Please model this.
Amino acid sequence: MSLLSLHSVTKTVPLPDAPPLTILHGVDLEISSGDRLSIVGRSGSGKSTLLNLMGLLDSPSTGSITFDGRPAEKFSSAERDRVRGREIGFIFQQFNLLQGRTARENVMTPLLYATGKQFWNRSTLAGEMLERVGLGHRVDAMPTMLSGGEQQRVAIARSLVRGPRVILADEPTGALDVETGASVMALLDEVALSTGAALVTITHDPAIADLASRHLLLDHGRLSTVRDDGRPSELVAVSRRLPHAAGVHAVPAASGAVPDEDEELSA
Model:
């Protein structure tokens, strides 16, 4: 059984003095535990909107989303919050660290909403996760004292500290140089593999896409699968030849959603 499923999902938003705008068109997607999936698409193709839906940060206009066999629309607000906080890990291009907190305190943040042993052992668990990403010696460092690669490692540790079953990474190496980005992505893939979590990466980088076992293209809100013998580098090359999507409006984000500042809407 799939862990996360999207069935005939569309996302449409109203516009002032204009017909409604459809961002996603009939998206079908099945994600199982341990999957390695890359999604490539030009700016305006709907990638961030799709990520928000997969992360239960927003709801589809039509179609359905299921998590662990349960329809997401039937989740209570508390259940949706629990799934987002416990079962789904988010990693973004911007590290979004709390500047007034140490590396350990940043990683502890999700555990403040945990219960039982995870809550009471939050400091130890945060330290162990930082050790796992190679920052055991930097637990007391403030974000301003860390390099870009180290800050992204802290962000990865924070997203993984509660043991999520799905990891959603939106251009996770976009703010890093090539060598550091490759190192960070290899680390993320290694940690996800060891826990059995599904890893979904949105990227323009063929080297990052190369780590995935499934490769999808999002074009004007329509999702298609690359052939099994297709190369990720070919997928990225195809996406670069696609025209930019029309439109200049920002996606109205649901509470907690993190929209891509560069993302435009597609008709």
Remarks:
- The chain has one domain: 4-241.
- Strands lie at 4-15, 18-31, 36-40, 62-67, 70-71, 88-92, 166-170, 198-202, 214-219, 222-225.
